[in-house]
């Protein structure tokens, strides 16, 4: 029973993490605690211009999109469904957590067009907040929108190398950049360099061996991870 419980717990943890990171909940209230989408009157789209870069701060990350006008936003989301069907009506439906998680695992995504309400999902929206970081690199608004429209469809996904931030920075500034990725990599470097992480990996490994028993599936990852952290530190 314990062996089955561990993968289930890991899957649940990943799903909860993705709920915090991304912009949608399961439709029909299948997951409790998620706020309903904001009504259309919640967002004043009259202040948005075609080609604007929209940011929605989340608990752990920021979600990005390009405003196309007429209450439409192009944004990149992990999604497994485009790998199995070309039916645009099915793909355009709300991305459930299972579709999203499988999209992350299989590195499949779609650049899709949704309403501002579906894109923001009740969060506050920042407009062109990244322009200050790129200054003279800002492309024309129409050019940014056209780039976004041209890329709509299935695409590869990578949390570090091709996420929603890479998409919008390419469209508006001409170069795919992700400051969130840079911060994440710096944090990983700090963890690796901190020798306390070696001790932590040993303790976690010993705990897994005690709970699951001594086996290659528990002992080898413990030894390998500890060795890598030690050599990289």
UniProtKB/TrEMBL annotation:
Membrane topology of the entry: Single-pass membrane protein
Transmembrane intervals: 198-231
Chief localization: cytoplasm
Domain LRAT: 53-180
Catalysed reaction equations from the record: 1,2-diheptanoyl-sn-glycero-3-phosphocholine + all-trans-retinol--[retinol-binding protein] = all-trans-retinyl heptanoate + 2-heptanoyl-sn-glycero-3-phosphocholine + apo--[retinol-binding protein]; 1,2-didodecanoyl-sn-glycero-3-phosphocholine + all-trans-retinol--[retinol-binding protein] = 2-dodecanoyl-sn-glycero-3-phosphocholine + all-trans-retinyl dodecanoate + apo--[retinol-binding protein]; all-trans-retinol--[retinol-binding protein] + 1,2-dihexadecanoyl-sn-glycero-3-phosphocholine = apo--[retinol-binding protein] + all-trans-retinyl hexadecanoate + 2-hexadecanoyl-sn-glycero-3-phosphocholine; all-trans-retinol--[retinol-binding protein] + a 1,2-diacyl-sn-glycero-3-phosphocholine = apo--[retinol-binding protein] + an all-trans-retinyl ester + a 2-acyl-sn-glycero-3-phosphocholine
Domain of life from the UniProt record: Eukaryota
Subcellular location: Cytoplasm, Perinuclear region; Endoplasmic reticulum membrane; Late endosome; Rough endoplasmic reticulum
Top EC class for this record: transferase
Entry keywords, A to Z: Acyltransferase, Cytoplasm, Endoplasmic reticulum, Endosome, Lipid metabolism, Membrane, Sensory transduction, Signal, Transferase, Transmembrane, Transmembrane helix, Vision
UniProt-listed Enzyme Commission number(s): 2.3.1.135
A GO term from the CC aspect: rough endoplasmic reticulum
Pathway: Cofactor metabolism; retinol metabolism
Active site residues per record: 164 (acyl-thioester intermediate)
Function in brief: Transfers the acyl group from the sn-1 position of phosphatidylcholine to all-trans retinol, producing all-trans retinyl esters. Retinyl esters are storage forms of vitamin A. LRAT plays a critical role in vision. It provides the all-trans retinyl ester substrates for the isomerohydrolase which processes the esters into 11-cis-retinol in the retinal pigment epithelium; due to a membrane-associated alcohol dehydrogenase, 11 cis-retinol is oxidized and converted into 11-cis-retinaldehyde which is the chromophore for rhodopsin and the cone photopigments.
Record protein name field: Lecithin retinol acyltransferase
Organism: Odontophorus gujanensis (marbled wood quail)
């Amino acid at each position: 029973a314990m062996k089955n419980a561990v993968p289930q717990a890991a899957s649940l943890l990943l799903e909860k993490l993705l709920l915090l990171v991304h912009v949608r909940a399961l439709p029909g209230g299948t997951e409790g605690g998620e706020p309903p989408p904001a009504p259309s009157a919640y967002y004043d789209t009259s202040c948005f211009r075609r080609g604007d870069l929209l940011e929605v701060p989340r608990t752990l990350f920021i979600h990005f999109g390009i405003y196309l006008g007429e209450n439409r936003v192009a944004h990149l989301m992990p999604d497994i469904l485009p790998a199995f069907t070309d039916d645009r009506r099915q793909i355009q439906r709300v991305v459930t957590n299972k579709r999203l998680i499988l999209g992350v695992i299989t590195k499949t995504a779609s650049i899709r067009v949704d309403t501002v309400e579906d894109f923001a999902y009740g969060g506050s929206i920042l407009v062109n907040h990244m322009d200050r970081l790129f200054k003279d690199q800002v492309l024309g608004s129409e050019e940014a929108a056209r780039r976004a429209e041209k890329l709509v469809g299935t695409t590869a996904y990578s949390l570090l190398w091709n996420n929603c931030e890479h998409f919008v920075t390419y469209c508006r500034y001409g170069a795919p950049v992700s400051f969130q990725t840079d911060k994440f990599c710096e944090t990983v470097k700090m963890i690796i360099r901190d020798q306390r992480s070696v001790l932590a990996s040993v303790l976690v490994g010993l705990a897994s061996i005690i709970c699951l028993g001594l086996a290659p599936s528990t002992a080898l990852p413990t030894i390998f991870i500890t060795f890598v952290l030690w050599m990289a530190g």
